[in-house]
């Protein structure tokens, strides 16, 4: 099924590595100056001049010591929060000016289960995703990836050493085939393969966050649009994990108090483009997890449009059902 993302900017896709959806930096061979965990923190890296610790200037990123002729390169391994297809990578060297790596590379593995980090680091079957390439200092370095495989772990390598503020891994979630279909399924979950195809407005935050796992902790964890000054309404269109029958919808306005939508509606689309009303326009309350029982459509739907009236913010959208009905 084709996507409707506007333009070719892969950064509109969700970050599969970010800590907000369960990403983790599980191993690094060196993190002398700054911790590896900073690589996947949400939000841009921060910098406060002349803030020194016992090992020097404090950086919001991952920084290794100078090699001084020591052979080899420095690497960190990231376990993706959601396994999937990687469409693009951003190596962000923000605030690293005289200490950024001149070159980087990225490789990948698809791993079953939860082996120890040391065992993963010792593996020799890493698959190159991004060959050794130059990067600039204090800059976002984006690289498109042409690969259709599902990956669970990435290894970021600096040649030979230095500092990187953030690693962003943009792509599409793909479920673990061994776990798929074992119970009730959220057809709108990023981790099950759902994807935001398009939306009317992403002024304050990304609509991808609607599909994140877990509950929103703050207003910034959801999707919020600008205030409309016309007679229209805002919307988001989502490709489901697969064609299926939706039986329960959860529209969550948690953390949105004075800026939640006044109402919402859900429309499904079958494989031939036929529109199916799933939830008519229904009033919403602020800061509330609304749950609505739905009557499944006669035919499976594979995309859903969520309309909000007229604008505002939502924390999460859950669409529970079964595949292939």
TrEMBL record:
The keyword Hydrolase applies. Keywords: Hydrolase, Purine metabolism. One of its GO terms (molecular function) is allantoicase activity. It catalyses: allantoate + H2O = (S)-ureidoglycolate + urea. InterPro entries: Allantoicase, Allantoicase_dom, Galactose-bd-like_sf. Pfam families: Allantoicase. HAMAP family: Allantoicase. Belongs to the allantoicase family. This is Probable allantoicase. It comes from Nocardia rhizosphaerae. The lineage of its organism: Bacteria, Bacillati, Actinomycetota, Actinomycetes, Mycobacteriales.
């Amino acid at each position: 099924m084709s996507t409707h993302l506007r333009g070719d900017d892969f950064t509109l896709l969700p970050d599969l590595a970010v800590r907000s959806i369960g990403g983790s930096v599980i191993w690094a061979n060196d993190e002398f100056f700054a911790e590896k965990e900073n690589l996947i923190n949400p939000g841009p890296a921060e910098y406060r001049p002349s803030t020194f610790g016992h090992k020097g200037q404090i950086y919001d990123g991952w920084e290794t010591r100078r090699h001084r002729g020591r052979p080899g390169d420095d690497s960190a391994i990231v376990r993706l929060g959601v396994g999937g297809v990687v469409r693009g990578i951003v190596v962000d060297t923000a605030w690293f000016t005289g200490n950024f790596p001149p070159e980087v590379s990225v490789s990948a593995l698809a791993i079953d289960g939860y082996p120890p980090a040391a065992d993963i680091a010792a593996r020799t079957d890493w698959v190159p995703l991004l060959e050794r390439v130059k990067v600039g200092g204090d800059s976002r370095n984006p690289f498109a990836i042409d690969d259709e495989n599902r990956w669970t772990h990435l290894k970021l390598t600096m040649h030979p050493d230095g500092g990187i503020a953030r690693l962003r891994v943009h792509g599409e979630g793909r479920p673990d085939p061994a776990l798929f279909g074992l119970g009730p399924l959220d057809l709108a979950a990023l981790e099950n393969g759902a994807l935001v195809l398009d939306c009317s407005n992403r002024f304050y935050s990304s609509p991808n966050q609607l599909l994140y796992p877990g509950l929103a902790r703050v207003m910034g964890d959801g999707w919020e649009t600008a205030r409309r000054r016309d007679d229209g309404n805002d919307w988001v269109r989502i490709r489901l994990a697969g064609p299926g029958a939706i039986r329960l919808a959860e529209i969550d306005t948690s953390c949105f108090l004075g800026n939640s939508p006044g109402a919402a509606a859900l429309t499904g689309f079958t494989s031939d483009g036929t529109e199916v009303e799933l939830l008519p326009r229904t009033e919403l309350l602020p800061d509330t997890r609304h749950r609505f029982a739905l009557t499944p459509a006669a035919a499976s739907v594979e995309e859903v449009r969520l309309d909000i009236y007229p604008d505002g913010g939502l924390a999460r959208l859950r669409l529970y059902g079964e595949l292939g009905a």
